[in-house]
Amino acid sequence: MRFTASVRTLLLAGVAGVAFPASAFAQDAADPADPASAQAEAARQIETGGEIIVTATKREQTLQETPVSVSVTSGETLERAEIRDLIDLQTVAPSLRVSQLQSSANTTFIIRGFGNGANNAGIEPSVGVFIDGVFRSRSAGQIADIANVSRVEVLRGPQSTLFGKNASAGVISVVTREPQFDFGGSVSATYGNFDQMVLKGDVTGPLTDSLAFSLDGSYNKRDGYVEVVNLDERINERDRYSVRGQLLFENGGPLRVRAIADYSKIDELCCFAGNVMAGPTVPLIFAVGGEIVPEDLFSDRTYLDTLPVNEIENYGGSIQADLELGALTLTSITAYRELRSLSQQDVDFSSADVVSELRDQAYDTFTQEVRIASDFDGPFNFLLGGFYFNEKVDQTSGLTNGEDARLFFDLLAGGGVPGTLSTVEAALGFEPNSIFAEGPTTSEHFTLDNEAYSIFGTLDFQPIDGLTLTAGFNYTKDKKDFTLEQTSFDPLANVNLVDAVIVGQIAGALGIPPSSVDAATIAAFQQANPAAFQMIAAAATDPDTNPLLALQPLQFLPPFLGVPNAVEPGRTRDDDFSYTLRAAFDVTDRLNAYVTYATGFKASSVNLSRDSRPLPEDYTPGPYGSTILAPSSPIRDAGLAVPNLTTGTRFAGPEEAEVYEVGLKGDFPGVRFNLALFDQTLEGFQSNVFTGTGFALANAGEQSTRGFEFDTVVQPVDPLVLTFALTHLDPKYDSFPNSTLGDLSGRRPAGIPAWTIATSATYTHEFGMSGNALIGRLDYYHESNTQITDGLTGFDTDAEGMAIARLFRREVNQVNASLTLALDMGLELSAFVRNLTNDRYMTQIFDGVAQAGTVSGYPNQPRTYGGTVRFKF
């Protein structure tokens, strides 16, 4: 069999589900050199919901025949709905959730309630993103404007047997249009509110009889919709552009080669986080001359002492070669990419100059995939592949105290009265004004080298007509080597308040200066005077006799034990065998059923944050973090313990996924439907929780989600296509005893709506036989009311943090609409509105940075609207 060009671009469009919107039936079949043909084909796709050819099992099938769970959105729908990046894709893919956090580089993708990876460079997402068959390992490399898209496929559930890389929760596969041997292209200009200007263009055509090219570019600029009152500026803007060039070699012979090179740049003031609960520290912000907008998130007003900087460069290239060897097809995809991300944030989110953060990240990634697929006439067919991944991550980051930091923390220590820090400095022998002094307070350098390979494949067997039995496997071997370094400059953070008293008391008893009291002196004193030592230790750990203990909340940036060290090697080594078993049966010519059991895997992730801590089995701290009173442990016994060292994790172990799924697909005149029922479990789900200064990375024992996905396409009359997609999720922490909030076992995970709806209506009015058409589209997206986060860590107890978190919930009701006049000569005029009703909600909440009891949150985007002029030639 000879694969068509459109099929070759889909060779990595793996398996995962059944739901698909009306747009999923669209197939790019029009001649781009003929505007009339292009317009007529676009109208036909929307009117009739024509079939789409995919290779969800790496072989050519219609979407309706494919026994997998995959929702597909065509490039035509992306244009009509004004969807420009993956963040907006969720409004047409109900099992997908996308949220953007503190910067343009931090976006989280979640499928069926599973997903993570944003804001921590050591975590690969549980949802893998592939663009033209190339794995994009970090969200910062995935969110640029989508140009020249043929289709976007959202594949649900583990994908290991058809994708070589981590994909324990699902896959988003973006397939772009490849070069054509007929000259054509398009140009478009969009203008919208907030002075949005979007320019796009693409051109394609032949260079020789066997070599075609394409070139596309986009520019997207928009004013921010959040006013920074004191700086007379606006943030949450858009300022990004991208260019991409492609070459396609095809001469009718067995070899076909596609080469792609691209570059994108983001330079934006993003992102706004507002106050949703004003804690006890807020009056202190005002006391140092700062201002905030308390508990009014949707006013779109804020105060900052500096504007947020977000600069992202993303570039690389890939070569895909397909060689036909009779009934076999050999495919190779080689890619190299670089990603650079620089962000600087005012993390106290006020006009007071208290704390800011700088983060500079670099990712260099090489991937190689080779696979061979058969197309035999007999009952057996197979696919066998190998995947190699090599990535280097380098992060330099740090926190800086501003000119108001000293006074703010002095007031915090003294209950609103200044002078406490000066007293402490005198008592502990510090330089005057050294605690929380203006300047760097932490400096960090993290690296991660990740090398992995996998072997994967599937075998199909058709014992009788209509029945296909499939078995698939994946063996993955993954190794990571990492280094963690941090310096904490604040003198108070570098002293344990229990140990300081013990050293001082021993020095006084021996009549020597405290600087002369070392570990040997302490051990000798304890052995010679056990009763006296016991009395000193009791007094040092009693808040009534050691008032310094009240200052411990100010030691939130303690010294850091670097990795690797004599106890912690700074590496992970994982391997796993995953598999898929599936039976698919054609009940009738119009009704198909399947049942699937699949497992999946994602390797260990590393906590590249300032809250990385040794595992409890490596270190046990003493009371109030004391090193002197700490019991025996490998780190203490090796003499590695630093003041105020606590425990946590350096990395989280692998995720192992398991899913049972039953699906039914029907295709009848005027009606198509899909139903999938599933029970999906992730053992060792990698939970990444913000703690107020860094991240706590830990494995949940087990998290499961049961539910169903149903969608239908109804065409009651020729011009009208109606779609309805419904997802129901019932998630549960089956076991999570060691979360940062305590034991969450048996609880429902927050942030996962029970019900999600995506529905649309598209009406196409043709003006006789002229080839002109008026196309109207209305879509509605709904997420049922759900708690936003499991809990907050900035409160006195876990119970209080979880109780406060229950106050914050989210419900989404978003309406989008567009109207397009498509003329036969290639001109299109469109008007659009997104979030028509201006529905506002919080996307996420988190603890205020170094402000216990304060809660901040991210709002969604308000209503946007505008018009587009597009010409296709």
From TrEMBL:
GO CC annotation terms, alphabetical: cell outer membrane
Entry's localization field: Cell outer membrane
Domain (TonB-dependent receptor plug) ranges: 63-171
Keyword field: Cell outer membrane, Ion transport, Iron, Iron transport, Membrane, Receptor, Signal, TonB box, Transmembrane, Transmembrane beta strand, Transport
Topology in membrane: Multi-pass membrane protein
Listed GO biological process terms: iron ion transport
This protein's record includes keyword Iron: yes
Signal sequence, renumbered to the chain: 1-26
Record keyword Signal present: yes
Highest taxon of the lineage: Bacteria
Residues of the TonB-dependent receptor-like beta-barrel domain: 297-836
Similarity field: Belongs to the TonB-dependent receptor family.
PANTHER family named among the record's database cross-references: FERRICHROME IRON RECEPTOR-RELATED, TONB-DEPENDENT OUTER MEMBRANE RECEPTOR
Protein name: TonB-dependent receptor
Organism: Pelagerythrobacter rhizovicinus
Organism taxonomic ancestry: Bacteria, Pseudomonadati, Pseudomonadota, Alphaproteobacteria, Sphingomonadales
